[in-house]
Amino acid sequence: MIQKLFKTTVFRLSLVYALLFSTVAAGALGFIYWMAKSQMQEQTDTRLQLETDALLHRYRTTAVEGLLQVIQIRNSDGGSRYLIANLVNRQQQDLTRELEFDSLSGDHTQAFTTLPLSKITGNRQQNQPTRLLLTLLPGGYQLLVATDLKEQHTLLNRLLFTVLTAIGLIFTLAIIGGSFIGYNVLHRINAVGKTANEIINGNLNQRMPVTRRNDEFDRLSRVLNTMLERISHLMQGMREVTDNLAHDLRNPLNRLRNRLEASQYEASEKTDYPQLIQDTIQDVDDLIRTFNALLSIAQMESGVQRDDWTDVDLSALTDELAELYTAVAEEQGLTLTHQAEPGLHTHGNRQLLAQAITNLLDNAVKYTPAGGAITLTAARHADQITIGVADNGPGIPAEQHGQVFKRFTRLDNARSSPGNGLGLSLVKAVADLHGAEIQLQDNQPGLKANLILAG
Predict the structure, then answer these.
(1) Phi-psi region of 100 (alpha: psi -120 to 50; beta: other; left: phi over 0)
(2) Which end of the chain is more exposed for a tag (fewer CB within 10 A), N or C?
(3) Which of 74, 97, 100 is nearest to 87 (CA)?
(4) Domain segments of the chain: what residues?
(5) The pLDDT value given to residue 106
(6) What pLDDT is attached to residue 313?
(7) Tell me, which fold does domain 7-153 have in CATH?
């Protein structure tokens, strides 16, 4: 698990983020340390300058004797907080050379430097850092004012330790957080991978795990689950189609074989070859119609026929179909009435819509008993157009309304009539292709099928 964790993109990104964030934090904290150090030195130099200015004022008013007296008082235990103040004659001791004040050359009369205290006192045990301000006075005198930096350096060292600790802590926490996030992501990915492997091995009922977090993994899992549901539905439909197709093709193929086998053993003068050929052609036509219907449904479900969509005048289309089926209904002893509002238009494939309405009319003519009535209507309701085909035949039980749209589904009362059980499946495929809805209602008696399209 740890080895896999190190190879995850999340952990690597977390490591890069930790390094980047630690670098930024180090830069920010380093800047704070540098600013604090600079501010402390500036404050120290300001105090040294003020002390020097005060001593220079006394030097101007009381000359050397008065200045030495003030320096003695300031260097005493109860005097100034500054460690050392000293007045030295340059002829006796040149501090600019001993203490390396190179900046005092030329016109400069003051200079700052930081040195160990031992260089001033001569005591080698006094190694604490000291800040010095040396001022050259008229008459060859040198005024030296110094202060101890031990407390400041202790504070700066603590601040530096705090900065380094904070940087290390930030980096450590970033690594730990990245590892934790990477572990969680790896756990979620492993769960998805495990489910995928089970699906690959044939367990199509498995679904991707979904938590209550509603994060991107959950959203991806929902999309995958929807896809798996669709695939499972299609495979179930494929199995049903295969089973039903094998069942429905068996009868016409058996009839063909038996008919040909019988003609083989009968005397040629006893065989009615024209009728044999006619029956064979009829069975072959039924097979071709079945395969054509399956091919049409498959093409519509794949959406390949969207390229030739145009504006379809549904009013004119229903008028043409009503005129055609009026004669068909009269031959069956039925009456067909038609009523369509003018100006009904939708965007779609005219041939497919005509085929869907034709299938509904075929079913109405097929299952309506002699003397019955069929109604074809087309009307607008708000932004939708409803094309209805109603009859007063036996109808379909309400609990079977959803079942009849499956391929090769035939109800008990339709077993004796010709057909392949693909008519309403094709209507459903056309409706789905056009984003429409097909509804079945009880016509009391009979059935009413409504094709609802966008207007």
Answers:
(1) left
(2) N
(3) 74
(4) 7-153, 217-302, 305-454
(5) 52
(6) 92
(7) Beta-Lactamase (3.30.450)
The H or E element spanning position 122 is: none
Higher pLDDT, 208 or 117: 208
CATH code for the domain defined by 217-302:
1.10.287.130
Assigned token pair, 18: 């930790």
Cα angle value 431/434/435 (rounded, 5°): 85
What sign for the dihedral angle of Cα 265, 266, 267, 272?
Answer: negative
Q: Which residues, other chains included, contact 232 with Cβ-Cβ below 8 Å and sequence gap of 6+? A: 204, 205
Is residue 134 a contact partner of residue 87, using CB atoms and an 8 Å limit?
Answer: no
Q: How far apart are CA 396 and CA 442, in angstroms?
A: 8
Taking only the tens place, the pLDDT of each residue in 281-323 is 877 777 776 676 666 666 666 655 566 688 889 999 999 999 9
Q: What is the pLDDT of residue 187?
A: 79
How distant, in Å, are the alpha carbons of 56, 61, 124 from that of 149?
23, 31, 17
- Contacts of residue 56, defined as CB under 8 A and 6 or more positions apart, other chains included, come to 135, 137, 143
Q: For residue 205, is pLDDT > 60?
A: yes
Cα–Cα dist 374/397, whole Å: 19
Distance CA 446, CA 397 (A): 10
pTM of the full structure: 0.48
- The predicted-structure confidence for 64-91, as pLDDT tens digits, reads as follows 888 887 777 777 754 445 567 788 787 7
Residues in the chain: 455
Q: What is the dihedral of CA 352, 354, 358, 359, to 10 degrees?
A: 20
The span from the CA of 21 to the CA of 94, in Å, is: 52
Assigned CATH topology for domain 305-454: Heat Shock Protein 90 (3.30.565)
- DSSP state for residue 304 in the 8-state scheme: G
Q: What amino acid is encoded at 80 in this protein? A: S
List alpha helices for 76-149, DSSP H: 95-98, 118-121
Sequence-distant (≥ 6) Cβ neighbours of residue 212 within 8 angstroms: none
The Cα–Cα gap between 376 and 323 comes to 11
DSSP assignment of 350-373 equals HHHHHHHHHHHHHHHHHHSPTT-E
In the block, which residue shows the tokens 């002893």? 333
Contact 80, 145 (CB under 8 A): no
Q: Is the dihedral of CA 438, 443, 447, 448 positive or negative?
A: negative
Sign of CA dihedral 419, 421, 424, 429: negative
pLDDT tens-place string over residues 128-156: 788 888 888 887 888 888 888 888 888 88
Tell me whether strands 335-340 and 373-381 are parallel, antiparallel or unpaired. Answer: parallel
User: Across-strand partners of 439?
Assistant: 450
Report the distance separating Cα 246 and Cα 250, nearest Å.
6
